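Page 37, top half.
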Amino acid sequence: MYTGIVETKSMTFNVDLKLESGRILGPITIAYETYGELNRERSNAILVAHAWTGSAHLAGKHSEEDTKHGWWDAIVGPGRLLDTDRYFVICANVIGSCYGSTGPASINPKTGKRYNLSFPVITVRDMVRAHLLLIDHLNIDKLLTVLGGSMGGMQALEWATQFPDRIASAVVLATSAQPSAQAIAMNAIARWAIFNDPTWKKGEYRKNPKDGLALARGIGHITFLSDESMTAKFGRRFSAKDGLFDFFGQFEIERYLLYNGTSFVDRFDTNSFLYLAKALDLYDAAWGCETLEEAFSSVKAPLQFFAFSSDWLYPPYQTEAMVKALENIGKKVEYHLIDSSYGHDAFLLEHETFAPMLRAFLDRIGAGSW
């Protein structure tokens, strides 16, 4: 684990950011954490982009008494994949979230009240534009790489296509250029769960709508797993606390989903969940273009892609479509299909399966030898 004590910092930018929707958002606060030191040339910065319900707390602890480490703690630290003796690692919370960056739970300075559903619909591209404000503030002209999985991978793609001169490389894991109808359908059911909770009150709740958000999280969590991983971990085991023929008796997988959903309510805002789900559904790497090839024509940096065999949320064929589009137009691209039973969450749970290839990629980028 990363042994350092880290502080979540925040920076407020008094700007009016024009969003993809045409609406204006400002001022904008970005919460972020950093690990390691920026070198004299300011050339060793790596931006790690988090997924749907992630935060800026990538690694380490906030105090000696803290029992919970950052969400990708295993890959950050001296001698690790993101070696803090070599790299200056940055992780920033996206706008729309509830972990310190401006989102629907934030106070609207014009009204003095929470934004709630008056918060504008945002896109992944909007998230990246907001993070560019932070990178400029840190006086970093070019990031060594942008690295992310799932929604984080979408952000990495946006850096590569929208700000090609600001990155030296990008690493994209378990990501789609355009979520499928199936992925959108799962998010739709999660939304219904929240909308049908009477305590949601069309976003004007005082306390998190417990039942609706817990159910929505349970639905979403199923998409992160796989048949193989659920079978290996739970099988058809029935709860030892319940009788087999008790009407409300549960299989262990049911107990797991219930625990995961109810605990989530204590740490994430419902409206933020909805806004980020909308951003995922809207994502299209070819937004404003006719084809992926056209969208990727602006890419200058080498890209490395990873897909995972049992990922049914963003399956390998979707990654392979992006790789083919880049190859078709002569871009520098590297692709690895990882055999895994962990489903979509494999990029978080099995970093050792892709670490050697990613480390070698970063070494080549750092040496300028691609």
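Page 37, bottom half:
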Amino acid sequence: MGMTIDSKKRSLLKTLSWRILATSIGVGLIYFYTESIEFGLTFGLADIIIKSVAYYAHERIWTH
């Protein structure tokens, strides 16, 4: 079976599903150590935005 080229839509869906999982872990860890849900959620928002853009760009570069 040969390799298939990822579509932009598939890359976007992979990006979103991974970021939700990874950010949830990060928010949970920050809450565990600081007991501050506000700090955890602030981290989570920044984390999901910055890393989603970086991951999507990485995925698109690899397809070319």
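Margin note: The two ends are 20 Å apart (CA to CA).
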